[in-house]
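Predict both folds.
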Amino acid sequence: GSSRNEDGIKEFSLPPALKGMIYFAIAAGTVGAFSLILGGKGLGRRRVGDNGYWGPVSSSVDWCEENYLWSHYVAELWNTLTSLLVSLAGVVSFVQFSQHDGEMRFKLLAVSLVAIGIGSVIFHATLVPWGQALDEVPMLWLGMIAAYGVIEGKTPSPRYGPWLPVVLTLWAIFVSLCNVYLEGGLQIAVFHISFAFSELFFIGGSIKLHNSSPDSKIRELFVVALALYVTAILSWVVDNVMCGMMQNLPFGVPNPQLHAWLWHGGVGYASYCLMMAHFLERQRLLGKATCSLKWSGPLIVPIHKSSMNKRD
């Protein structure tokens, strides 16, 4: 649906079903995070697995995949392999931002996504504290960069000068140090609270951009990205809270590895779609050549004004 604001500018709204999914995902994600903070193992009887090359699990979180089931050297094989999908999304994003005159903020987002994927590979392969830090610290920095993009995304030039990036950088350093040196439930709490706030801020900024964008294709991209992101969050929650049930499905059905395929794969692709939507809307605001988008399989291809004029 659409309406006009007090300035007479046409505004749009998300489909009601997607709004409901977002609210439900936020509530479910909160439950899942508190379950981890309190050390809960979820519903049902959970199989942890054996010890392997990296020794007993010493990270503050152990996921639903059985440890060292496939290899003596890799703690969680499926979670390790699918983490590469996150890095792939970052690489593709960086290439496209570079090809279409993207600002540094978008390139830093893409680099952060690559770093998250690499850190996630190390974390899931080892399940040790230093591996966990390599996964989670880049996530905190990505959140700060995304927050900067939302705050400074409404005008062509920065509204808050150099102070905003300085404050966000100092906060990122602080929470990164807390994430590295704290242990147990306190470490989990600091990480999830900090990352959740930046996540909600970015989702809120995405909804506002969707509502104000005059381009129907960009609005559709926001809807696809947010739906994927919500699905990924819900899969993360189910994998944590219902782990024992996922490991003991009827008729011998194997664990579907929701954290691996729907969280890593889903959040990687959703992040790519969200970043591209923000990028395209930012290009429109700056009056650059990019005008809209088209799909080429799973890839989002920016369309330039000159190309559209030629078709006309």
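Second protein follows, with its predicted structure tokens after the sequence.
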Amino acid sequence: MASSHDAPIPHIAIENTHSRFMLSIDLHGNLNMFDLERGASQFANRPKGGDGDSKLFDRINDSSFLASSLDGNENKRHALVPKKYSPTFRLKASLGALRYCCWYPPDPGMFITGGFDQRVRIWDTNATKKLLDQYNVGFPIRCCEMPETFGSNHSLIAACGEAPVVRLCDSISGSITHTLIGHSANVFTLAWSPTQAFTLLTGGDDSTIRAWDIRKGKWFMAFDQERTLDSLSSNRRATRRIGWKRKRDREAKRNIDVPRAHSGCVTCIKFARDGRRLFSTGQDGRLRSWQSDGGCELFVHFEHTGNGSRILRFDVSEYDHCIAYPDRQKVKLYGSKTGRVIQVLNGHFETPLCCAFRIGTQELYTAGTDHQILAWCPEAVEKEMKEAWNEVRRQRQQACNAESKNPFIDSLGFSTDDDNWSDDSLSGLSV
């Protein structure tokens, strides 16, 4: 079977409405969609590996997660993990490299892609090759997202990339409505606030993370790695006396003395599900935790990482308990509040680039430069799935036995194999 991807996979996205479909893109412009429900029983019926596979299975089983491959290639050594998925459909979505994909938040009937061809495209999920709309933003795209805030009053798509600006595209009018200017270097990542529909956060090559009010078109806060909760309260008292708003506007125009969030380029930012905290990473190898309202660091000590890739994408679990972070040839699970390494997942043969948690389950999906997508499931969940499947089989067997033994029919003395509707004694009578 042909491989699902023949290039590094920079991003995967799982829709949150039903948590069933997943998108994956590669640097050759190909897009695949997977139906995750097709592999729901993969861990219950997991086959045992052969002699050549035992080392990999032992290495994976040493952790509390088990892996299965979403790649369709059975000839490569990457396919030593048990279950193989096949994509629901494949699409050549761009002539250049794709860098980001996301679902339309209200309905998974549409999805969005962006890449180095400078275009944000909206696709119809049902008609796989139907392009609904596209926008030329004028620069190669690294990230594009829509807000997932319930009941948001706008349908804007924010796009950023190889330019110091952010474009806002209106999916209803079909035009670019806003251009956010404020960064002094390229903007590589962005994220919409889960609680405030008009608040957008951006991070880029100038080492800053800025919060924008898209209604005004200006940034109103910059995250500072030296700011604490105590200094934040004192600064709020001081800003009332010196007129911080006028001072902030002057600094925004000059773009000087803007607080830095990282010592290097900011590569990825991600909100917690409740919107109270923000997590960011940069080329300085640091993973930081922030208070989203005040822009001050919470000083959670995460272990130093060695992955300085600019296309790194980490993810936060459903209840904000852990963070999946690609690091070299493994994926680390950090405690979001303690910063400790909970688990180290070994399964990729090259550097993983992106992670995605599946809401409603404890499954984790990772992809990277080895052209593979691995699905991870805790051993406890695997045991529960096996018990559930055994219980379903037992109930079905009991139902079949109950149908074959009916006490009412047995009390009448009839046999289920006899023909009880005909009588040979009446065969010679005529009316």
